Structure to design on (414 residues):
């Protein structure tokens, strides 16, 4: 018995030593795994953007880009994220929507900006989508729904039917409840770090709740998209009440540039 | 040392005992990447030879307990992989280190199994480190005098 126990211990130590030793090697760096992953993701992201642009117009005039970059930089820099790592695209659509796509892109529809009464509301949404990106929810979701094979095929041959499927998945259905909740929490954290009032995020959630008022309450439990009112309540509950050093993100005229662009139809 | 070290097995015993090892090898090739298939093969073979001679039983038990140990480490690797593909985990150096570790142990076990299958077929008693003494305990063959 003692012999068995001793040999078992030696075997376990051998296993753990090998595992520990191998874990300390930076395989991700030496095998360029992170860059391969990112290259594939960027390729898919570009294909998705091209697909979106086919059916919707992207608004990329300089004044709008400057305003969006101001918002992005404020949130990113305060949270040690490189602003160059995230791209925000404003797309013409009446739909009140924003979503993250592969390659660290955020698509915002003009319908959403039209609904926002303040910059902080928009910042909350952007922070939320940044949260999905930083937590790698986007690629994980696509891997889950489409599989590695299909994604690899899209990256290599740009199958338009699959691109369409990806756009539909990312723009019209929510992430899992847990992932939406995580992105909400991270958005509040990002905004507080950037001295942006996170109550704006709760406000836009309440507006969404009003929009979805027709959906029966019972459906909330089987829906992967948690009730917006509940999300607003959760956001309000995690905001640090003692923080008040919020500062404006945009000037009045900069905000007007965005609002007018959203309303103008151009 | 097991009493079987000096035991003179007959041809039928050698064939059956060797088949126990071969069964697990075959099941590995058929059942990858699921870690349970080779264990199932060993379990089936063990139960089908439970009433056989000590030599056959002993070697079926040795291959069974080694498969059981591998099942545990392989199952951890399998569920870690599934959690990366379908869950919230991400590819990491620890995961790659673990996969290489269990791959190494699986390859070593594979080689030892082939070696055991060949030697046992020739009538030699093969006792693996740790799994041999463990099998002795299970089969209660340690310190016994042979009577077969």
């Amino acid at each position: 018995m003692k012999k068995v126990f001793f040999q078992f211990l030696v075997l376990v130590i051998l296993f753990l030593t090998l595992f520990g030793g191998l874990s300390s090697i930076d395989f991700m760096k030496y095998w360029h795994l992170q860059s391969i992953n990112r290259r594939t993701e960027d390729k898919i992201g570009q294909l998705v953007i091209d697909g979106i642009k086919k059916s919707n117009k992207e608004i990329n005039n300089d004044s709008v880009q400057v305003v969006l970059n101001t918002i992005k930089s404020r949130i990113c820099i305060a949270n040690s994220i490189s602003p160059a790592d995230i791209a925000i695209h404003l797309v013409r659509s009446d739909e009140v929507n924003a979503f993250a796509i592969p390659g660290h892109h955020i698509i915002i529809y003009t319908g959403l900006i039209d609904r926002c009464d303040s910059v902080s509301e928009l910042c909350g949404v952007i922070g939320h989508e940044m949260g999905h990106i930083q937590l790698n929810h986007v690629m994980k979701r696509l891997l889950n729904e489409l599989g590695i094979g299909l994604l690899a095929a899209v990256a290599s041959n740009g199958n338009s039917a699959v691109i369409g499927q990806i756009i539909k998945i990312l723009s019209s259905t929510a992430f899992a409840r847990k992932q939406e909740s995580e992105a909400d929490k991270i958005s509040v954290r990002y905004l507080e770090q950037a001295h942006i009032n996170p109550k704006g995020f709760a406000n836009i959630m309440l507006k969404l709740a009003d929009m979805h008022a027709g959906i029966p309450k019972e459906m909330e439990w089987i829906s992967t998209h948690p009730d917006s009112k509940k999300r607003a309540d959760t956001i309000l509950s995690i905001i640090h009440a003692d923080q008040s050093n919020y500062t404006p993100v945009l000037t009045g005229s900069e905000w007007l540039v965005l609002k007018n662009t959203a309303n103008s139809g151009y | 040392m097991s009493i079987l070290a000096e035991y003179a097995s007959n041809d039928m015993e050698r064939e059956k005992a060797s088949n126990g090892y071969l069964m697990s090898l075959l099941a590995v090739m058929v059942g990858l990447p699921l870690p349970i298939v080779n264990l199932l093969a060993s379990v089936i073979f063990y139960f089908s030879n439970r009433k056989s001679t000590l030599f056959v039983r002993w070697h079926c038990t040795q291959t069974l307990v080694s498969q059981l140990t591998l099942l545990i480490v392989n199952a951890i690797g399998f569920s870690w992989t599934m959690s990366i593909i379908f869950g919230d985990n991400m590819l990491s150096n620890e995961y790659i280190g673990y996969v290489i570790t269990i791959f190494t142990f699986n390859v070593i076990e594979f080689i030892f199994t082939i070696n055991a299958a060949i030697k046992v077929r020739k009538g030699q008693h093969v006792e693996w480190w740790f799994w041999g003494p463990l099998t002795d305990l299970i089969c209660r063959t340690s310190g016994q005098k042979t009577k077969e």
